[in-house]
Amino acid sequence: xxxxxxxxxxxxxxxxxxxxxxxxxxxxxxxxxxxxxxxxxxxxxxxxxxxxxxxxxxxxxxxxxxxxxxxxxxxxxxxxxxxxxxxxxxxxxxxxxxxxxxxxxxxxxxxxxxxxxxxxxxxxxxxxxxxxxxxxxxxxxxxxxxxxxxxxxxxxxxxxxxxxxxxxxxxxxxxxxxxxxxxxxxxxxxxxxxxxxxxxxxxxxxxxxxxxxxxxxxxxxxxxxxxxxxxxxxxxxxxxxxxxxxxxxxxxxxxxxxxxxxxxxxxxxxxxxxxxxxxxxxxxxxxxxxxxxxxxxxxxxxxxxxxxxxxxxxxxxxxxxxxxxxxxxxxxxxxxxxxxxxxxxxxxxxxxxxxxxxxxxxxxxxxxxxxxxxxxxxxxxxxxxxxxxxxxxxxxxxxxxxxxxxxx
Length: 408
Known about the structure:
about 70% helix, mainly alpha, about 400 residues
């Protein structure tokens, strides 16, 4: 009897959408915290930062994990040469278009806000297109939030030649290993502990040596973590022993994640109130070391387990958003920066400004996708979509939803 999962995983489709949606909210948050970002609200302050810190350790790792699973499912049924060509086009075209069209307003407004330029976008664009690596605080041109797509494309190129060996390994020796490790009585414990290794290596060793740049070259700490995650996801994507252990580990993972969140919140509260030195010592170890490694994987297991229980079902919304979410991702940061740059100069109080920035971002993504990207076929490839729009018939319990899952 096969021990591998071949049925469609609607829960992972939902998680991909939710992970990208969370990323949009996170970038809206970046407009309001005191950390450096492209442009800032006049209301920026440290108050939202504890929530952002709770998301930081796992939000991108979850996205790469889901991407690795989707990549395994796609590669197992694909002609590798054809898949390489098609996947390269579907990622490379949005990267180039994004850099030279979508991201340009971000660089323009950032340099306007910093006082490094004083020109309209028509005058700025030739300068941006020509490129300048030395004059300004921003490299021109730049890919900003599209670094994830760049990294995913490079990782995909590396992993495609390994697709068949990975599948063969997991049908034989890999299956015996996962059955022994995750299929026994201690499977739930091992699924919580063993995959923390890449996080521990990253947090304790590589991250201090190689600060995050998202510049592809020499970004070794990020490559170690994200490539390890996407490779591990490809290995276990169809393994029933791993997913069975995830289901059993859901409650412990949820409890441990909640405990860490409560403890971290208490520590941050004490620190913000300038409590004794004890607080600093806890933060130094707990936040920078243990939380960023163990907490990250516990949170991912809790999220995967919750999705298995409650999200593994089709719907028309799921089918629609599976296609829509990647164009939303490409668009969102430019919309945040454009809306935020203008609104924060209108003398609004904090909450009305935040709500307007959020509404402008999501409404802009939805309207541009629905009425421009989705319906006009020449534009679809610029946002990583197939030329022909997908149809979304109402799914039933007896048939699958449209097979729209992207490896992005």
